[in-house]
Amino acid sequence: MNTKLNKSDWIILAIVFGTTIILGCFDYYREGNKLIEYLVDFPTSTLLSIIVILIFIQKIVPAFLVDKKNYVLFFITSLLLLTISGTLDNIVGRYSAGGSLSTVKNVLSYINDGLYNAVDMVGLPLGILLIKKFYEGQQELITIQKQQKENELKLLRSQIDPHFLFNNLNTLDALIDSNPTKAKEYINRLSLIYRYLIQTKDAEVMELSKEINFAENYIFLIKTRFGNDYEFTIEENTSIKDKFIPTGAIQALLENVVKHNKSDGKISIKTTILINDGWLIITNSKSDVVSKPASFGTGLANLKARYKLLSNEQIQIHNMNKKFEIFIPIITLSE
């Protein structure tokens, strides 16, 4: 909890004590109090109340409720502080009215009256400020958690494998001599991919339609590099409008296919990207030949971590003998 009083806190105190003084002046006027009582009682009560409030907010609450959570000491300290301040205020009021302590018959009763007086003086403004401080603290916590979440997402999004550019440059180098026309198309697709990566580098989620367009370009790079080793099909069984997934999710899943499956040269690794209501499902046939870990991107583990930050739904993985399925939830704006 922020223990410093800000501008709005002082405004609240000014309104509360200003109203209290005005109402008190009416009471004093009806009772016929002397001018000296106006000039002494109200400033004294206000000053003592502000001092008590500052001690509560800056010392007592942090020491006994925030740091140590010692409720017994909090109660005893609060009771003592209120009793002292209230009794002092009563003493000042007694002398300003021309009286003295010698006329006090019951000291305990007088001290008890001081406690009740302090509660009346301090209770409302202190309660308002504590509630306000608690609310501000919760808002600060939410802001910090949100910022931390954004930082984690940016960190995860930034973890792109350096082999991505290296592998594609090697493929492009081979194409320039063997197939210049396809090399031009390869450059165009690669530039579209990099433009997309740059444009979406800070985005937590992206429209599914744009991710599908990105996937089509990415699949072209894979097929150009590996030939007929991999086959890809995209099926849309539902509208992809106004639907979102984590930025780069399909890229990570396609990388996973290439990383963990290598064709034996006779049978292609078949991969289907299926879009259903609420889920994007990627299914690939499995190979007995495992490729070297030459991932192009963030990876499946990274994608899982991002989903924990973005959605209540989590990735589902079905690892079977002949095929591998990954279900990733489609995110709506309401999430």
UniProtKB/TrEMBL annotation:
The UniProt keyword set, sorted, is:
Kinase, Membrane, Transferase, Transmembrane, Transmembrane helix
One GO cellular component from the entry?
membrane
Q: Which Pfam families match?
A: His_kinase
Residue ranges annotated as transmembrane are 12-29, 35-57, 69-88
The entry's protein name is Histidine kinase
InterPro entries given in the database record: Bact_2-comp_sensor_kinase, Sig_transdc_His_kin_internal
**Keyword Transcription attached:** no
The UniProt GO MF terms for this protein read: phosphorelay sensor kinase activity
Start and end of every Signal transduction histidine kinase internal region domain? 152-229
